[in-house]
């Protein structure tokens, strides 16, 4: 019997209730489910639980992946800002240097900076 037919069979059990009175005089309904069907239902519930755990695990991985991409985006953004700030500092340095050395040109500034950098690496 395939799973769909089995589910339909189990669903139809509710159409055939057995009524009885409990020891306190209350009315109760009892349904009779085949033991194989009951075991199958338990297995299905366990599978559903495992699948739910897997879904939660994958959702967590997906969220972490998003966080990784966000961190990468933020890192790139910070690098862009740092680059602009460095350029601004260098431009300010150039302006200061040119104002202190009225005879100098921009080329003189860059040559001086290049020499300083090379001297620092030797």
Automatic annotation (TrEMBL):
Keywords: Coiled coil. It comes from the Bacteria. It comes from Parageobacillus thermantarcticus. This is Uncharacterized protein. Residues 38-91 form a coiled coil.
């Amino acid at each position: 019997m395939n799973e769909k037919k089995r589910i339909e069979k189990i669903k139809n059990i509710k159409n055939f209730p057995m009524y009885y009175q409990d020891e306190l005089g209350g009315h109760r309904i009892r349904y009779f489910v085949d033991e194989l069907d009951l075991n199958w239902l338990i297995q299905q519930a366990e599978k559903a639980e495992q699948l739910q755990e897997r879904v939660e695990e994958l959702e967590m991985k997906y969220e972490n992946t998003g966080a990784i991409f966000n961190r990468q985006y933020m890192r790139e953004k910070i690098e862009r800002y740092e680059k602009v700030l460095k350029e601004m500092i260098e431009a300010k340095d150039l302006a200061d240097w040119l104002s202190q050395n009225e005879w100098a040109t921009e080329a003189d500034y860059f040559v001086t900076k290049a020499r300083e950098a090379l001297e620092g690496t030797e």
